[in-house]
Design a protein that fits this description.
The chain has about 180 residues and is mainly alpha-helical. The protein has two domains: about 30-125, Winged helix-like DNA-binding domain superfamily/Winged helix DNA-binding domain (Arc Repressor Mutant, subunit A, Orthogonal Bundle), CATH 1.10.10; about 125-160. The chain contains nine helices and five strands, in the order αββαβααββααααα. It has helices spanning about 1-30, 40-50, 55-60, 65-80, 100-110, 110-120, 125-140, 145-160, 170-175; strands spanning about 30-35, 35, 55, 80-85, 95-100. Strand 4 and strand 5 form a beta hairpin. Helix 3 (about 55-60) crosses helix 4. The two termini are about 25 Å apart. Keywords: DNA-binding. It holds the Pfam family MarR. This is DNA-binding MarR family transcriptional regulator.
Length: about 180
């Protein structure tokens, strides 16, 4: 019975986590500063701080897909905030660099990041923030190899006894996976 209570709590935590992620992405994507989305601002900030960046490196550092980085870079370049050029360190690759116009735009809007963080986390106490950081780190660690573990789990479930639906644990996992 105790496991059932844990499962119900885990399902509720999963639902709230997915809802939080969807809402954050939806709200984030509505925000634009001088025609630049928040992910675009992150790209400009990264270049300003670290110098020109190869697009693949931006995708990795900012945890964006390569397609998303390409689309964002297209918009930044069209607005005159960034420019693609041959990498200074590897002439075979293309890098993105910030323009003077991009630097001025970041300077005008330097408090945006502070405002965003304050709106999201400013109402929490220091102890609550420490707890959140701890739990965010644990969730992030749980996601390392997540898709591979799910693929493996799906393989074990499908190899279960024919017609019997597998064990109660595998039925719970199958229900979990099917959402």
């Amino acid at each position: 019975m105790e496991k059932n209570k844990d499962w119900i709590l885990m399902e509720e935590a999963d639902w709230h986590f997915r809802k939080l992620v969807r809402r954050f992405v939806k709200e984030r994507d509505k925000i634009s500063v001088e025609g630049v989305s928040l992910p675009g601002l992150l790209i400009l900030k990264t270049i300003e701080r670290n110098g020109e960046q190869r697009l693949g490196d931006l995708a990795e550092v900012l945890d964006f897909t390569s397609g998303a980085v390409t689309a964002l870079c297209d918009k930044l370049e069209a607005a005159g905030f960034a420019v693609r050029q041959r990498s200074r360190t590897d002439r075979r690759s293309i890098a993105l660099n910030i323009t003077e116009r991009g630097r001025k735009m970041l300077l005008r809007n330097q408090e945006v990041g502070t405002c965003i963080i304050d709106l999201l986390f400013g109402t929490f106490s220091q102890e609550e923030l420490i707890q959140q950081i701890h739990y965010f780190k644990r969730l992030n660690e749980s996601l390392v190899g997540f898709s591979e573990r799910i693929d493996e789990l799906v393989g074990h479930i499908s190899e279960g006894p024919a017609g019997k639906g597998g064990s109660p644990a595998s039925r719970r996992n199958r229900d979990f996976i099917s959402y």
